[in-house]
Amino acid sequence: MSALEKTDLRLGVIPLNDCGAMIAAQAQGYFEAEGLNVTLSPEASWANIRDKVSVGLLDGAHMLGPMPIACSLGLSGPATPMIAPLSLNLNGSAVTVSARLAEAMRELDPDGMAARPRTARPLKALIEARKARGEPPLTFAVVFPYSMHNYELRYWLAEAGIDPDKDLRLVITPPPRMAARLASGEIDGFCVTAPWNALAVAQGSGEIMIYAAELWRAGPDKVFGVTTAWAEKHPNTLQALLRAMLKGAVWADEPDNRAQLGSILADLLQAPVEIVRQSLLGAPPYALGQPGTPSLDYIIYHRYAASFPWRSHAAWFLTQMLRWGQIGPDVDIAAVAEAVYRPDLFRIAAAALDEPAPIVDEKVEGAHAEPWTLDEATAPIRMAPDIFFDARPFDAAQPARYAASFEIGRLSPK
């Protein structure tokens, strides 16, 4: 191995299940085996992660998939070029509403509430009824403006004819505060990564409306991010980090390791261990009678090329930024995706571990209703179905047309 430029590292994490690859790399000694002395630093919010990585107080961090894009573009504070050389997971989040709100929707649209996957149609009916009575808009929370949670909530709402900027009030709440704010009545619903949805259900204050794995069968979520300057200064250290976390992702995705991972995560999250363990599987038995079979695909750390930083994922995030007015049409989506998401760096780490890796940088998202095989790889990779719940595919070659094709959004005809 080439000499490491830096061995004592501080990496930020938010208490969520999707930092599992980083937690596993620490717990299983993979960082240490690479010659790294890593301290994992739990942070209070995504804004903390952004700021500390930007100024160098953290060497790198668990990040929201769109965060390094937003930071590079200067959408979230001063422009700080960042890269994402590793994806940390697919799926793992859910939209949850208060138990009171769920009951009101069930009274208005019992068929809609019984359907699977659930659309936001029952919520649309409730919003219209509240408007007719002159009641104030409902309040939903997301974790950060530039997050998969914001975009998947908006996607789900808009598909049912709800304009998230006109028909609801959207607020920002750190993930660990979601369940408490729902229970207190401060918010009516939220979109967040596990285990906080499961905690709200277990406490009796919430009901999960739809899982991310139902919205987009194999959708992106978190990445590992560093500043571009840090990556250029510490190339060997970065590769050591990627190898350790890739080994952590492999370990975290083994079925026999999920219970142990749940125990480790519960300590970080300061949440009941059984809830965290169940939230690693999805469709938990205490989910208020919701159908579904527990599955490791509820959150995916390594299988289905989950660790690969697909530039088509970056392009999809950018189309959502364009759709909702966070960027303008002048942004070169392909160029930004290429600068921020770095599959070339991932491939070096994967080759060192003899791990198969895609040899293409992007794919059509949402094109597969059944399991499939990615042959454009160093060895064939088994892939999961990846369709969106509205069956609309995304081709990264046509991002602007895709963003403008939706009936609700800043680009839509009024």
Quick overview of this protein structure:
Helix 1 (about 20-25) packs across helix 13, helix 14 packs across helix 15 and helix 16 (about 310-325) crosses helix 17 (about 335-340). Helices cover about 40% and strands about 15% of the residues.
How many strands, which pairing sense, and closed or not: the largest β-sheet?
5 strands, mixed
> Order of strands side by side in the largest beta sheet?
2-1-3-11-4
Q: What would you call the shape?
A: globular
Oligomer: single chain
Task: Report on this structure.
The chain contains 19 helices and 14 strands. It has 414 residues and is of the alpha/beta class. The protein has 2 domains: 8-90 and 220-281 and 297-402, D-Maltodextrin-Binding Protein, domain 2, CATH 3.40.190.10; 93-215, 3-Layer(aba) Sandwich (D-Maltodextrin-Binding Protein, domain 2). The strands form 4 sheets. It has a 5-stranded mixed sheet, sandwiched between helices. Helix 1 crosses helix 13, helix 14 (258-269) crosses helix 15 (273-279) and helix 16 crosses helix 17. The radius of gyration is 20 Å and the shape is globular. The chain starts with 7 loop residues before the first strand and ends in a 10-residue tail after the last helix. Mean pLDDT is 94; it is low at 284-291.
